[in-house]
Model the fold of this input.
Amino acid sequence: VQLQAFGGGLVQPGGSLRLSCSTSGIKFSINTMAWYRQAPGNQRELVASISSGGTTNYALSVVGRFTISRDNAKNTVTLQMNSVRPEDTAVYYCQLPNFRGRHYWGEGTLVTVSS
Done:
């Protein structure tokens, strides 16, 4: 099982950024996927998740700004980040939860929101 996240970078407050996570080694379409983030000095927190059926769940802090989506044909989960704020600065991780008794994590991608 491999997860690879990409798309992080520097973005100005109010701007947009798109993160993607490609997967391999799993039957992607039947699995829930999630994005987490961890800011310096903070615990890792759930940002958004999407079930196999497309049901989404968001942290209150990103509701209305971030959108999680999935492309089962490409085995990819995407996090569209709009109206970003400095407090969105963090390392973002994609996660495959509860697969064969464990959680799988991709390498993080750094998002920095700064002018």
About this structure: The chain has a mean pLDDT of 95. The two ends are 37 Å apart (CA to CA).
